[in-house]
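Before a colleague's protein record goes any further, I have to sign it off. Thanks in advance; the entry in question is below:
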Amino acid sequence: MTITSRVDDEPTNSGSDPTTSGSDPAPTGPTHPCVRCGRPVPIGTAMCEYCNPLGLADPAPTQAHGTIFLAIGVGVVVLALAGRFLLSGIGPFQASVTSVVVATDAAGAPNGLSVTLQVTNQGSRTGASTCQVRDTAAVDSDHSAIFVSPEIPPGQTVTFTRTTSLLGLQPTTLQVDCMQP
């Protein structure tokens, strides 16, 4: 296997800067490096005369930004379709509150309510549900707790208990709504 390298056939200045060539006039004013080789080029120019000998026009900023915008749009659509495919068939979930008792700490003092929920996955795929438990007597919507169920196989019912202090310390009538992801 032969390794070849690019040979700079252009004569170079005898000055101390090896990145400038004899045919490229030294740019005046502010510069930045050529995107390909690093030679200084004027602001607003992407490549030096050596890397772009035909003087082809640089891509317009709107062209570059449009390409990025299109790529982001395609990415969002692909993620939405993948999410839809991966989450389809999970739920709906049927839920009910089966028990509400006062929870106590190690010293026997009340520290919230222990809520037992029964959740059924009526879908065709295994999944977990997010359940919002609300006090039916409370007028404000902030008087609720959010629980995540364990994984529930399709067509199966799972009973689980969670403890919360968000619903007070007295057993009350609770309502539960479980949502699919």
